[in-house]
Amino acid sequence: MAIMDASLSIAGLTLSPPLALAPMVGLSHSALRTLTLELGGVGLLFTEMLSVTRLPQENAIVSPFLFRSPEEHPLFYQLFVSPGQDVVPAVERLHQLGAQGIDLNLGCPAPNLRKQGAGCALTNDHEQVRHIVAMLRCATRLPLSAKIRLGTSLNEENLVDFCQMLEGEGVDLLSVHGRLHGEKFCRRPHWDWIGKVKSALKIPVLANGGIFSVEDARKCLALSGADGLMIGRGAACRPWLFAEIARDIYGVAYAPSHMNLPDIYFRFVQLLERFRPERRLGRLKQFTHYYGQNFTFGHHLASAVQTSSSVEQACDRARKFFYRSEELQV
Ligand SMILES: Cc1cc2nc3c(=O)[nH]c(=O)nc-3n(C[C@H](O)[C@H](O)[C@H](O)COP(=O)(O)O)c2cc1C
Fold this sequence. Notes:
CATH superfamily of the largest domain: Aldolase class I
Number of helices: 13
Bound molecules: flavin mononucleotide
Strand order of the largest sheet: 3-4-5-6-7-8-9-10
Number of strands: 10
Mean pLDDT: 96
Radius of gyration: 19 Å
CATH architecture of the largest domain: Alpha-Beta Barrel
Number of domains: 2
Order of helices and strands: EEEHEEHEHHEHEHEHEHHHHHH
Shape: globular
CATH topology of the largest domain: TIM Barrel
Protein backbone atom coordinates (compact mmCIF):
# COMPACT_ATOMS: atom_id res chain seq x y z
CA MET A 1 0.00 0.00 0.00
CA ALA A 2 1.30 3.49 -0.86
CA ILE A 3 2.57 5.60 2.03
CA MET A 4 -0.19 7.98 3.10
CA ASP A 5 0.05 11.70 3.69
CA ALA A 6 1.78 12.01 7.06
CA SER A 7 0.29 15.32 8.09
CA LEU A 8 -3.15 16.85 8.18
CA SER A 9 -3.99 20.51 8.53
CA ILE A 10 -7.07 21.62 10.44
CA ALA A 11 -7.82 25.29 10.98
CA GLY A 12 -4.15 26.22 11.06
CA LEU A 13 -3.09 23.28 13.23
CA THR A 14 -0.96 20.49 11.79
CA LEU A 15 -1.54 16.93 12.96
CA SER A 16 1.53 14.94 12.22
CA PRO A 17 0.81 12.10 11.79
CA PRO A 18 -3.02 12.22 11.63
CA LEU A 19 -3.45 9.74 14.49
CA ALA A 20 -5.43 10.71 17.58
CA LEU A 21 -5.77 9.26 21.06
CA ALA A 22 -9.55 9.02 21.65
CA PRO A 23 -11.32 10.66 24.58
CA MET A 24 -11.91 7.96 27.21
CA VAL A 25 -13.19 8.45 30.76
CA GLY A 26 -10.55 7.29 33.24
CA LEU A 27 -7.99 6.52 30.52
CA SER A 28 -7.22 9.58 28.36
CA HIS A 29 -5.51 11.44 31.19
CA SER A 30 -2.09 13.00 31.44
CA ALA A 31 -0.29 9.70 32.15
CA LEU A 32 -1.55 7.79 29.10
CA ARG A 33 -1.28 10.86 26.89
CA THR A 34 2.35 11.34 27.91
CA LEU A 35 3.16 7.66 27.51
CA THR A 36 1.80 7.58 23.95
CA LEU A 37 3.76 10.74 23.13
CA GLU A 38 6.94 9.21 24.50
CA LEU A 39 6.46 6.07 22.43
CA GLY A 40 5.76 8.18 19.35
CA GLY A 41 3.28 8.37 16.52
CA VAL A 42 0.37 10.20 18.13
CA GLY A 43 -0.47 13.52 16.45
CA LEU A 44 -3.51 14.65 18.46
CA LEU A 45 -4.61 14.13 22.06
CA PHE A 46 -8.04 14.42 23.62
CA THR A 47 -9.11 14.72 27.25
CA GLU A 48 -11.91 12.57 28.53
CA MET A 49 -15.34 14.23 28.38
CA LEU A 50 -15.74 17.18 30.73
CA SER A 51 -18.95 18.69 32.02
CA VAL A 52 -19.52 22.13 30.61
CA THR A 53 -21.03 23.24 33.92
CA ARG A 54 -18.37 21.79 36.24
CA LEU A 55 -15.33 22.72 34.17
CA PRO A 56 -15.17 26.40 35.17
CA GLN A 57 -14.86 25.40 38.88
CA GLU A 58 -12.31 22.58 38.47
CA ASN A 59 -8.87 23.18 39.98
CA ALA A 60 -6.44 22.58 37.12
CA ILE A 61 -3.53 21.82 39.45
CA VAL A 62 -5.10 18.95 41.35
CA SER A 63 -7.89 17.82 39.05
CA PRO A 64 -6.95 14.56 37.28
CA PHE A 65 -9.30 15.66 34.49
CA LEU A 66 -7.44 18.88 33.82
CA PHE A 67 -3.89 18.15 34.93
CA ARG A 68 -1.62 18.45 31.92
CA SER A 69 2.11 18.71 31.31
CA PRO A 70 3.54 21.12 28.71
CA GLU A 71 4.57 18.33 26.33
CA GLU A 72 0.95 17.18 25.90
CA HIS A 73 0.33 19.04 22.69
CA PRO A 74 -1.85 19.44 20.65
CA LEU A 75 -4.61 18.73 23.17
CA PHE A 76 -8.34 19.06 22.50
CA TYR A 77 -10.61 19.22 25.54
CA GLN A 78 -13.86 17.34 25.06
CA LEU A 79 -17.07 18.86 26.40
CA PHE A 80 -20.44 17.33 26.97
CA VAL A 81 -23.34 19.73 26.93
CA SER A 82 -27.02 19.38 27.80
CA PRO A 83 -29.76 21.44 26.18
CA GLY A 84 -30.02 24.91 27.64
CA GLN A 85 -26.52 25.00 29.16
CA ASP A 86 -24.27 27.99 28.58
CA VAL A 87 -20.95 27.01 27.02
CA VAL A 88 -19.21 30.36 27.31
CA PRO A 89 -17.69 30.04 30.85
CA ALA A 90 -16.27 26.61 29.96
CA VAL A 91 -14.80 27.87 26.69
CA GLU A 92 -13.21 30.85 28.47
CA ARG A 93 -11.68 28.41 30.96
CA LEU A 94 -10.26 26.34 28.11
CA HIS A 95 -8.71 29.46 26.61
CA GLN A 96 -7.00 30.11 29.98
CA LEU A 97 -5.81 26.51 30.11
CA GLY A 98 -4.15 26.84 26.71
CA ALA A 99 -6.32 24.34 24.82
CA GLN A 100 -5.34 23.70 21.21
CA GLY A 101 -8.92 22.80 20.34
CA ILE A 102 -12.38 22.04 21.70
CA ASP A 103 -14.34 18.88 20.96
CA LEU A 104 -18.08 18.38 21.36
CA ASN A 105 -19.23 14.95 22.51
CA LEU A 106 -22.16 13.91 20.32
CA GLY A 107 -21.61 10.18 20.43
CA CYS A 108 -21.49 8.88 23.98
CA PRO A 109 -24.41 6.51 24.75
CA ALA A 110 -23.66 6.21 28.52
CA PRO A 111 -26.95 6.17 30.50
CA ASN A 112 -25.91 9.02 32.84
CA LEU A 113 -25.23 11.25 29.84
CA ARG A 114 -28.44 10.22 28.08
CA LYS A 115 -30.41 11.13 31.21
CA GLN A 116 -28.98 14.64 30.97
CA GLY A 117 -29.83 14.82 27.27
CA ALA A 118 -26.11 15.03 26.40
CA GLY A 119 -23.81 12.88 24.21
CA CYS A 120 -25.67 10.88 21.58
CA ALA A 121 -29.05 11.82 23.15
CA LEU A 122 -28.44 15.35 21.91
CA THR A 123 -28.40 14.18 18.30
CA ASN A 124 -32.15 13.38 18.40
CA ASP A 125 -32.67 17.10 18.00
CA HIS A 126 -30.63 18.53 15.14
CA GLU A 127 -31.74 22.10 15.85
CA GLN A 128 -30.50 21.80 19.43
CA VAL A 129 -27.12 20.57 18.19
CA ARG A 130 -27.00 23.36 15.61
CA HIS A 131 -27.59 25.87 18.41
CA ILE A 132 -24.85 24.42 20.65
CA VAL A 133 -22.30 24.27 17.83
CA ALA A 134 -23.16 27.84 16.83
CA MET A 135 -22.63 28.96 20.48
CA LEU A 136 -19.28 27.18 20.62
CA ARG A 137 -18.22 28.61 17.25
CA CYS A 138 -19.13 32.08 18.39
CA ALA A 139 -17.22 31.66 21.69
CA THR A 140 -13.88 30.48 20.28
CA ARG A 141 -11.49 30.81 17.37
CA LEU A 142 -9.77 27.58 18.37
CA PRO A 143 -10.24 24.56 16.11
CA LEU A 144 -13.62 23.03 16.89
CA SER A 145 -14.23 19.33 16.46
CA ALA A 146 -17.14 16.98 17.11
CA LYS A 147 -17.29 13.26 17.77
CA ILE A 148 -20.28 11.23 16.67
CA ARG A 149 -21.54 7.69 16.22
CA LEU A 150 -23.45 6.72 13.06
CA GLY A 151 -26.92 7.41 14.49
CA THR A 152 -29.80 5.26 15.71
CA SER A 153 -30.07 3.28 12.45
CA LEU A 154 -28.02 3.12 9.27
CA ASN A 155 -29.61 5.94 7.31
CA GLU A 156 -27.28 7.65 4.89
CA GLU A 157 -29.46 10.67 4.23
CA ASN A 158 -29.90 11.48 7.94
CA LEU A 159 -26.25 10.89 8.69
CA VAL A 160 -24.97 13.04 5.85
CA ASP A 161 -27.50 15.83 6.61
CA PHE A 162 -26.42 15.87 10.23
CA CYS A 163 -22.70 15.96 9.41
CA GLN A 164 -23.16 18.64 6.75
CA MET A 165 -25.05 20.70 9.33
CA LEU A 166 -22.04 20.38 11.71
CA GLU A 167 -19.69 21.42 8.92
CA GLY A 168 -21.95 24.34 7.99
CA GLU A 169 -21.95 25.60 11.60
CA GLY A 170 -18.15 25.74 11.62
CA VAL A 171 -16.90 22.38 12.91
CA ASP A 172 -13.32 21.97 11.64
CA LEU A 173 -12.79 18.26 12.24
CA LEU A 174 -15.18 15.34 12.67
CA SER A 175 -14.36 12.06 14.42
CA VAL A 176 -16.73 9.25 13.54
CA HIS A 177 -17.04 6.14 15.70
CA GLY A 178 -18.35 3.62 13.18
CA ARG A 179 -21.09 2.16 15.35
CA LEU A 180 -24.76 2.95 15.90
CA HIS A 181 -25.82 4.47 19.23
CA GLY A 182 -26.99 1.14 20.62
CA GLU A 183 -24.20 -1.06 19.23
CA LYS A 184 -21.85 -2.75 21.66
CA PHE A 185 -18.07 -2.81 21.29
CA CYS A 186 -18.14 -6.53 20.46
CA ARG A 187 -19.80 -5.75 17.10
CA ARG A 188 -17.54 -4.96 14.17
CA PRO A 189 -17.62 -1.25 13.39
CA HIS A 190 -19.07 -0.11 10.05
CA TRP A 191 -15.88 1.45 8.67
CA ASP A 192 -17.45 1.69 5.20
CA TRP A 193 -20.17 3.99 6.63
CA ILE A 194 -17.51 6.39 7.85
CA GLY A 195 -16.63 6.62 4.14
CA LYS A 196 -20.15 7.92 3.39
CA VAL A 197 -19.52 10.80 5.78
CA LYS A 198 -16.02 11.42 4.47
CA SER A 199 -17.13 11.69 0.85
CA ALA A 200 -19.94 14.14 1.72
CA LEU A 201 -17.76 16.62 3.68
CA LYS A 202 -14.94 19.04 2.94
CA ILE A 203 -13.57 19.05 6.51
CA PRO A 204 -11.21 16.24 7.60
CA VAL A 205 -12.69 13.09 9.10
CA LEU A 206 -11.02 10.78 11.62
CA ALA A 207 -12.23 7.17 11.62
CA ASN A 208 -12.69 5.52 14.99
CA GLY A 209 -13.62 2.11 16.37
CA GLY A 210 -12.02 -1.29 16.64
CA ILE A 211 -8.44 -0.47 15.65
CA PHE A 212 -6.04 -2.69 17.59
CA SER A 213 -3.30 -3.38 15.02
CA VAL A 214 -1.59 -1.98 11.94
CA GLU A 215 -3.71 -4.37 9.87
CA ASP A 216 -6.94 -2.95 11.37
CA ALA A 217 -5.66 0.57 10.68
CA ARG A 218 -4.94 -0.30 7.05
CA LYS A 219 -8.39 -1.87 6.53
CA CYS A 220 -10.17 0.98 8.25
CA LEU A 221 -8.39 3.60 6.13
CA ALA A 222 -9.05 1.63 2.95
CA LEU A 223 -12.78 1.18 3.70
CA SER A 224 -13.44 4.66 5.06
CA GLY A 225 -11.06 6.80 3.01
CA ALA A 226 -10.72 8.83 6.23
CA ASP A 227 -8.06 11.51 6.65
CA GLY A 228 -6.75 9.89 9.80
CA LEU A 229 -7.55 7.59 12.68
CA MET A 230 -8.68 7.94 16.27
CA ILE A 231 -7.73 5.07 18.58
CA GLY A 232 -9.12 4.38 22.04
CA ARG A 233 -8.87 0.98 23.72
CA GLY A 234 -6.13 -0.14 21.31
CA ALA A 235 -3.92 2.62 22.72
CA ALA A 236 -4.50 1.48 26.30
CA CYS A 237 -3.67 -2.12 25.31
CA ARG A 238 -0.68 -1.18 23.17
CA PRO A 239 0.45 2.41 23.77
CA TRP A 240 3.11 1.92 21.05
CA LEU A 241 0.42 1.23 18.41
CA PHE A 242 0.56 4.81 17.09
CA ALA A 243 4.30 4.44 16.43
CA GLU A 244 3.72 1.19 14.53
CA ILE A 245 0.97 2.70 12.38
CA ALA A 246 3.01 5.86 11.80
CA ARG A 247 5.94 3.77 10.63
CA ASP A 248 4.11 1.20 8.51
CA ILE A 249 1.34 3.34 7.02
CA TYR A 250 2.62 6.91 7.12
CA GLY A 251 6.33 6.19 6.65
CA VAL A 252 7.30 8.15 9.77
CA ALA A 253 9.97 6.37 11.78
CA TYR A 254 10.43 6.90 15.52
CA ALA A 255 13.49 5.92 17.47
CA PRO A 256 12.79 2.48 18.97
CA SER A 257 12.04 2.83 22.66
CA HIS A 258 13.89 -0.36 23.77
CA MET A 259 11.25 -0.69 26.48
CA ASN A 260 9.71 -4.08 27.11
CA LEU A 261 6.19 -4.71 28.43
CA PRO A 262 7.06 -4.34 32.14
CA ASP A 263 9.12 -1.17 31.44
CA ILE A 264 6.15 0.43 29.69
CA TYR A 265 3.81 -0.61 32.50
CA PHE A 266 6.04 0.87 35.19
CA ARG A 267 6.62 4.02 33.15
CA PHE A 268 2.83 4.44 33.19
CA VAL A 269 2.87 3.99 36.99
CA GLN A 270 5.59 6.62 37.24
CA LEU A 271 3.55 9.04 35.13
CA LEU A 272 0.55 8.45 37.42
CA GLU A 273 2.60 9.92 40.26
CA ARG A 274 1.70 13.32 38.89
CA PHE A 275 -1.75 12.75 40.34
CA ARG A 276 -2.73 12.96 43.98
CA PRO A 277 -2.24 9.53 45.66
CA GLU A 278 -5.98 8.86 45.98
CA ARG A 279 -6.43 9.38 42.24
CA ARG A 280 -3.83 6.82 41.12
CA LEU A 281 -5.09 3.34 42.01
CA GLY A 282 -8.39 3.49 40.10
CA ARG A 283 -6.62 4.70 36.99
CA LEU A 284 -3.98 1.97 37.29
CA LYS A 285 -6.72 -0.68 37.59
CA GLN A 286 -8.51 0.62 34.51
CA PHE A 287 -5.30 0.74 32.45
CA THR A 288 -4.26 -2.75 33.60
CA HIS A 289 -7.60 -4.18 32.43
CA TYR A 290 -6.54 -3.26 28.87
CA TYR A 291 -2.76 -3.66 29.17
CA GLY A 292 -3.15 -7.21 30.52
CA GLN A 293 -4.42 -8.21 27.08
CA ASN A 294 -0.81 -8.34 25.89
CA PHE A 295 -0.36 -11.56 27.91
CA THR A 296 -1.91 -15.00 27.47
CA PHE A 297 -2.72 -15.01 31.19
CA GLY A 298 -3.26 -11.26 31.37
CA HIS A 299 -6.53 -11.71 33.24
CA HIS A 300 -4.40 -12.87 36.20
CA LEU A 301 -2.53 -9.58 36.09
CA ALA A 302 -5.78 -7.61 35.79
CA SER A 303 -7.43 -9.39 38.72
CA ALA A 304 -4.29 -9.15 40.90
CA VAL A 305 -4.21 -5.39 40.35
CA GLN A 306 -7.99 -5.07 40.60
CA THR A 307 -7.98 -6.54 44.13
CA SER A 308 -5.01 -4.47 45.33
CA SER A 309 -5.62 -1.86 47.97
CA SER A 310 -2.69 0.40 47.09
CA VAL A 311 -0.54 1.27 44.09
CA GLU A 312 2.46 -0.26 45.91
CA GLN A 313 0.64 -3.56 46.34
CA ALA A 314 -0.53 -3.49 42.70
CA CYS A 315 3.05 -2.88 41.52
CA ASP A 316 4.36 -5.69 43.69
CA ARG A 317 1.82 -8.09 42.23
CA ALA A 318 2.49 -6.87 38.70
CA ARG A 319 6.24 -7.40 39.22
CA LYS A 320 5.59 -11.00 40.31
CA PHE A 321 3.30 -11.57 37.32
CA PHE A 322 5.93 -10.24 34.89
CA TYR A 323 8.60 -12.39 36.53
CA ARG A 324 6.54 -15.52 35.85
CA SER A 325 5.49 -14.44 32.37
CA GLU A 326 7.36 -15.38 29.22
CA GLU A 327 5.92 -12.70 26.91
CA LEU A 328 7.85 -9.60 27.81
CA GLN A 329 8.93 -8.16 24.47
CA VAL A 330 6.82 -5.56 22.70
C1 LIG B 1 -13.51 3.40 29.05
C2 LIG B 1 -14.03 4.22 27.91
C3 LIG B 1 -14.37 5.54 28.12
C4 LIG B 1 -14.83 6.33 27.06
N1 LIG B 1 -15.08 7.65 27.28
C5 LIG B 1 -15.41 8.46 26.22
C6 LIG B 1 -15.51 9.86 26.38
O1 LIG B 1 -15.24 10.43 27.44
N2 LIG B 1 -15.89 10.59 25.28
C7 LIG B 1 -16.15 10.01 24.07
O2 LIG B 1 -16.48 10.72 23.11
N3 LIG B 1 -16.03 8.69 23.89
C8 LIG B 1 -15.64 7.90 24.93
N4 LIG B 1 -15.42 6.58 24.73
C9 LIG B 1 -15.53 6.04 23.36
C10 LIG B 1 -14.13 6.08 22.69
O3 LIG B 1 -13.69 7.39 22.51
C11 LIG B 1 -14.18 5.38 21.32
O4 LIG B 1 -15.10 6.04 20.50
C12 LIG B 1 -14.58 3.92 21.44
O5 LIG B 1 -13.88 3.28 22.50
C13 LIG B 1 -14.30 3.17 20.13
O6 LIG B 1 -12.94 3.28 19.78
P1 LIG B 1 -11.88 2.10 20.11
O7 LIG B 1 -12.44 0.84 19.50
O8 LIG B 1 -10.61 2.56 19.43
O9 LIG B 1 -11.78 1.99 21.59
C14 LIG B 1 -14.99 5.77 25.77
C15 LIG B 1 -14.67 4.44 25.56
C16 LIG B 1 -14.18 3.66 26.61
C17 LIG B 1 -13.81 2.23 26.36
